Amino acid sequence: MRRSVPKIAKLLTLWLLVPVGAAVPASADSSSWFTRDTTEAPLQKLAPSPKKATPSGQATPNESIIQKSIPSNVPTTGDDAAYTAFDQGQYLTALKLAEQAAEHGEPQANTLIARIYTEGLGVQKDDKKAFEYYKRAADLGDVQGTFALAISYAEGRGVKKDRVKAGELFEKAALTGNAEANYNLGMLFLKGDGKPLSPIRAYQHIRYAAEKGISQAQYDLADLYQTGTGVEANALEAARWLSRAADQGLAVAQYDYAVRLLQGYGLTNDEAKIPALLKAAAEKGIAGAQNRLGYVYLDGIKVKKDPIEAAKWRLIAKKNGFADDNFDGIVAKMSKADRAKAQAQADAWADRIAGDPGMMAVP
């Protein structure tokens, strides 16, 4: 078994961004285990730098959020028998073959065994046993095993929580160039949690992860440039990195960047993207984006004015807990027939989403 488990394809499950009434699937994987909360910028007299926002648009304090983070992706092709069995869903066979390989000192085999026990694939979930195998993998030099072991310590999964130990392991994995480890390490330095508070070190590691294409790192890097944290404040760089994160489909970045563009603080060439960005975030369940999209159609910003479409998105946002008395008053003044059309379209949207829950999972 010579192949290592590759880096996770999907960085972060932001369950904080799930709309009211929705839930992140318990099996969602992520490569990072905390992110920062956000607060909606007011619709009128917008500030130069919009604060972050929750889906409901309600202000909440910044905080660390533990996320599911154990690496889960495995190669889908190759000659290794254990991985082939795993790919085919033959988990017990994969476990047996991986155990045989582990007995011969194969580092990656231990990581695969740990994953099987972490997720309870064909066996009873066992975090303690998973921890033991991740530790063996890390001791044998497997980078993904080291990264997963760091997560185990960070979350207290199968072992007593120890952020200092997690920081040491993240740093060990980061030194190999692992992007996700660099991101997590940067967040530890940013929070002074498990590592000394160091905005400059935080910037360096988060920047590295952002350059490697981690959308959440790009989003956070934009905030570092906007606030001048660990680096000289640079609004242009902030806009560039926020644009990159939005282009990758990170819902909160799509929403925040659309707000910046509406304020005139984004990249000029991206202004035409405002409706598409808001719609993408709205479809993923961010109530603030749904409400903003309503105003876009109401005022005809980069789209043709459409009062019914505007009312539809306002009704959707309202159902998801976003308060806006002004917009409600506008909808109330519409004709009964137009309100009925908007309500029917909002109901149809909700039914479509209910039939495809995956559409509401914020990436």
Description:
Helix 14 packs across helix 16. This protein is mainly α and about 375 residues long. The protein is globular, with a radius of gyration of 23 Å. The N terminus is likely disordered. It has 16 helices and no strands.
Q: How is the biggest beta sheet arranged?
A: none
In CATH, what is the class of the largest domain? Mainly Alpha
Strand content: under 5%
The helix/strand series, from N terminus to C terminus, equals HHHHHHHHHHHHHHHH
What's the Cα radius of gyration? 23 Å
Overall outline: globular
According to CATH, the homologous superfamily of the largest domain is: Tetratricopeptide repeat domain
Structural class computed from helices and strand pairing: mainly alpha
Tally of DSSP β-strands:
0
Here the CATH topology of the largest domain equals Serine Threonine Protein Phosphatase 5, Tetratricopeptide repeat
In DSSP terms (H or I, runs of 4 or more residues), the helix count works out at 16
Helix-residue proportion: 55-70%
Instruction: List segments where confidence is low: pLDDT < 50 over at least 5 consecutive residues.
Output: 2-79
List the domain count as a whole number.
2
User: End-to-end distance, in Å?
Assistant: 32 Å
Mean pLDDT equals 81
| CATH architect. name of the largest domain | Alpha Horseshoe
Task: Throw out a few tags for this protein.
about 375 residues; mainly alpha; Serine Threonine Protein Phosphatase 5, Tetratricopeptide repeat; 16 helices; about 0% strand; globular; disordered N terminus
